[in-house]
Amino acid sequence: TQSTWGQYVEYSRRVMRSHAEVLGLIAGSALLWGVMFHALVPLLSLFSKIRCLKPAKPSVAPSVYLASRIVAIVRLFAVLAYLLPGWLSPPEQLIKDPFYGYDDMFTIGMVLFAGFLIFDLYVEERYHIELPSMLLAFRVHHIGALLVCLLSIRPFLHHHGKFFLAIPEISSIFFHIVEFMRSDCPDLKERYPQFFSTFSLIFALTFILCRNIWFPYSSFLWWLDVIALWQSPTVHSQLVVGVYMCSNILFNVLFVLWGMKLTKVLLKHFKITKPKKGQ
Question: pLDDT tens across 19-66, in order?
């Protein structure tokens, strides 16, 4: 009705920036990460002759690998800084309306995250950093996450989004340490095997805890709420809710597949194997 639309317009003007402005901020965020990356590449190329820098794909310059990883780490801590405090202590408007409540801190964290996803897809298309076996999963993950970010602008799921964008990223801290030693600078792995083994173990444990246990459990609780929203007359768009449902299933499937690989690493680390027949 006209009155309902008028209330929505008034609410939108009061609590959130225009969609065009947020999209502009996302584009600016992607540009920011790109400028940082292209500034780091020539700087790091000065160290390209360092013996330890031997990236997994010889066709890619070590400075490109390193610059990409540095940008990813900066983005990681920036997003966590904006999202985690608000998730631990949500503002009153999100407590009252966890689905359609607006939060500035989430919007800033989402803008940084979405801009990075665009930047990362650009880097991959230009430099082909990812190994072929991981390329499909990389693209599916990034495009799915970007779509979820864009649909949150309305606003939608700012409260839940803080968890789903932040908590899985905790394991990424240790992922970058492990990947630097394994892929970018394998000499460090050989020189400090115990250090590498410890951080590999921490990464596997945090991944399984955050993405294979905590994430599915929270997803289950979220599904109970979102199904109720789907059937409620207060739902703004069943299509958007459906996209989020599909995205949640997609991420859980990806995390399970990656978690299975890491579980094998853990079993190997603790030397737990299946008993042979006849034993």
Answer: 778 888 899 999 999 999 999 998 887 765 555 566 556 667 778 888
pLDDT, tens digit (0-9, with 9 covering 90-100), for 201-258: 999 999 999 999 999 999 999 999 999 999 998 888 899 999 999 999 999 999 999 9
What string of H, E and C letters represents the secondary structure of the chain? CHHHHHHHHHHHHHHCCCHHHHHHHHHHHHHHHHHHHHHHHHHHHHHCCCCCCCCCCCCCCHHHHHHHHHHHHHHHHHHHHHHHHHHHCCCHHHHHCCCCCCCHHHHHHHHHHHHHHHHHHHHHHHHCCCCHHHHHHHHHHHHHHHHHHHHCCCCCCHHHHHHHHHHHHHHHHHHHHHHHHHHHCHHHHHHCHHHHHHHHHHHHHHHHHHHHHHHHHHHHHHHHHHHHHHCCCCCCCHHHHHHHHHHHHHHHHHHHHHHHHHHHHHHHHCCCCCCCCCC
Tokens found for residue 106: 């989430």
Please give the model's pTM, rounded to 2 decimal places: 0.84
- 155 preceded by cis ω (within 30°)? yes
User: Helix 238-269 crosses helix 215-230 at what angle (to 10 degrees)?
Assistant: 170
Contact 160, 222 (CB under 8 A): yes
Q: Over 80: is that where the pLDDT of 10 sits?
A: no
- What pLDDT, in 10s, does the model give residues 94-107? 999 989 998 888 99
